[in-house]
Design brief:
Elements (H helix, E strand, L loop, with lengths): L26 H24 L4 H8 L3 H28 L2 H20 L4 H18 L1 H10 L2 H44 L1 H15 L15 H19 L14 H21 L14 H31 L4 H6 L2 H21 L2 H23 L5 H16 L3 H9 L7 H34 L5 H39 L11
Helix pairs in contact: 1-6, 1-7, 1-8, 2-7, 3-5, 3-9, 3-17, 4-5, 4-7, 4-8, 6-17, 7-13, 7-16, 9-10, 9-17, 11-16, 11-17, 11-18, 13-15, 13-16, 14-15, 14-18, 17-18
Length: 511
């Protein structure tokens, strides 16, 4: 990469840039291992998005209410987020390969439990455990990519990673709708979970065969900072809990928002403890010195804002097409195919461009996604309902071209200055931001969507009600995309200022 940043003295030990590609493998073996990792990530992301389109069917078959359905989606994200950082820390100290296999095995068992769920409560518990399994395996993906590649090859790997994740994210609703159509309205949603079983078994076999060991045997005890883990978990739960129970219904309890005060207290205690723990010469759960690196700090905030917006955009659009316009799930899901295909192409292009053009690639990508969000709202409001899905599909394709220039280039820029041995941890913190963002963003958008329906039903025509509901839901998408764009401009300006700074300045500059 051409845009690197010098490190501040205080972060010298915790975050000194080092070379990557520390695993001694041939290029072919490295890429085979990489594709195993990406396949595991794709299975997880695909599962998250294809379940969204099954919620109406699950609600009818299992007699699940809106809160229970919300928890089936967001509860998965909650446990996913709780496990991500500790497992990333463990992967940095021990075998990523072992954690891959453990996570995949648990994911297989919990997928079977979801497919066989007799009640909504049983499905919810199975989904919570499935989130734990996802949190075990996902941090190892970026951590291993950090160790497998360096330089332009690494940017290329992140480009392919972004393309695969983009395809999985956008194809999920289409695949979910197709499986429901194949299995019928009663049991079609179960196929969504059964599909995971052969995929996970194949991934386990490939992981055992192709993934290298990333650590030698060590007799040193694992350092996981148990108090830090507890404070971190309390922070995540208190932040996400109010949003998990936000449905937009008049019966939502406003007292839930007081938990955000608890979040502020827990996160303050967590930061104070981590600083004290590090000052004793121990390894904290999250080395706060990482956030002194502006490329990592800005990139992590940008991807959190972006993932707060885009999953909500897919979900609200799918619900509008299904509930508002009466489209079958498979057709509603197909609207996002163009986004997936376009983002796959531009992720590859962006992964190559980022080495020479840097942050400006991400800025232009975000412009494209912002225009997509605005275009979708205008399409819903002003096109004939017969043509709305087709026009929305075209707008989504243009948005996908922008989205591909955001995810993989930003990933490369975010982790570009992170030491190899902290790759799993740094990547898992970024994943945490994405998952929390997705849970918060979908909760906010859904609450605005359903609140408008509750408020206007009976006083307006149904189509007008759903037009307004969609516009309100997409409002939150626009706000978070605008935040991501603002962060990208800040980071672009900071990088330009560093390049313009005199090279003979005394001492290393502070990011």
């Amino acid at each position: 990469m051409t845009e690197t940043e010098p490190q501040p003295p205080s972060a010298a030990r915790a975050a000194v840039p080092t070379t990557t590609a520390v695993i001694p493998l041939s290029p072919g073996a490295r890429w085979r291992a990489f594709w195993v990792c990406v396949s595991v990530a794709a299975i997880t992301i695909l599962d998250m998005t294809k379940v969204n389109v099954a919620l109406p069917s699950i609600g009818e078959v299992l007699d699940a209410g809106s809160t229970e359905l919300q928890l089936i989606v967001s509860g998965f994200v909650l446990t996913f987020g709780l496990v991500l950082v500790p497992m990333g820390r463990l992967g940095d100290q021990r075998s990523r390969r072992t954690l891959f296999v453990v996570g995949l095995s648990l994911y297989t068992l919990t997928s079977i439990a979801c497919a066989l769920a007799p009640t909504g409560e049983f499905l919810l518990v199975a989904r919570l455990l499935q989130g734990v399994a996802a949190g075990i395996q996902m941090p190892q993906v970026l951590g291993m990519a950090q160790e497998l590649f360096q330089g332009k090859e690494r940017a290329r790997a992140f480009g392919l990673f972004g393309a695969t994740i983009g395809i999985a994210t956008a194809f999920g609703p289409t695949l979910g709708g197709l499986l429901i159509a194949l299995g019928g309205p009663t049991d079609g949603w179960r196929l969504i979970f059964w599909m995971n079983v052969p995929l996970c078994l194949a991934a386990i076999a490939l992981a055992l065969w192709l993934l290298p060991e990333t650590r030698t045997r060590s007799h040193r005890p694992v350092q996981l900072d148990p108090i830090g883990v507890l404070l971190f978990g309390a922070s995540v739960v208190s932040l996400m809990w109010p949003f998990l129970f936000t449905t937009g219904a008049p019966t939502d309890n406003p007292a839930r928002w007081w938990l955000l005060v608890a979040f502020a207290l827990f996160v303050s205690a967590f930061v104070a403890w981590e600083r004290r723990y590090a000052s004793r010469g121990r390894n904290p759960l999250i080395p706060l010195a990482l956030f002194r690196i502006s490329s990592y700090r800005n990139g992590t905030l940008l991807q959190a804002a972006y993932f707060t917006a885009t999953p909500a955009m897919f979900l609200v659009t799918t619900l509008f097409l299904q509930i508002g316009l009466g489209l079958e799930p498979v057709y509603a899901g197909m609207v996002s195919i163009g986004f997936a295909l376009a983002s796959a192409v531009t992720s590859w292009i962006g992964g190559n461009l980022v080495s020479t053009h840097g942050r400006v690639v991400v800025v232009w990508g975000l412009v494209g996604v912002l225009l997509c969000g605005g275009g979708l709202v205008l399409t819903a409001l002003y096109t004939d309902p017969t043509w709305t899905p087709y026009v929305a599909a075209a707008v989504m394709t243009l948005g996908g071209a922008g989205g591909g220039l955001v995810i993989s280039p930003n990933q490369a820029l975010t982790l570009g200055d992170i030491p190899v041995k902290q790759g799993g941890l740094a990547g898992s913190v970024g994943q945490l931001g994405q998952r929390i963002g997705a849970a918060v963003g979908t909760a906010v958008a859904l609450s605005l969507f359903y609140a408008a329906i509750y408020r206007e039903s009976g006083s307006h025509d149904d189509l007008v009600v759903y037009h307004d509901a969609y516009a309100f839901g997409m409002l939150s998408v626009g706000v978070f995309l605008a935040l991501a764009f603002l962060v990208s401009i800040v980071d672009l300006t900071a990088r330009a200022r560093k390049r313009a700074a005199p090279s003979d300045a005394a001492g290393p500059p502070t990011p």
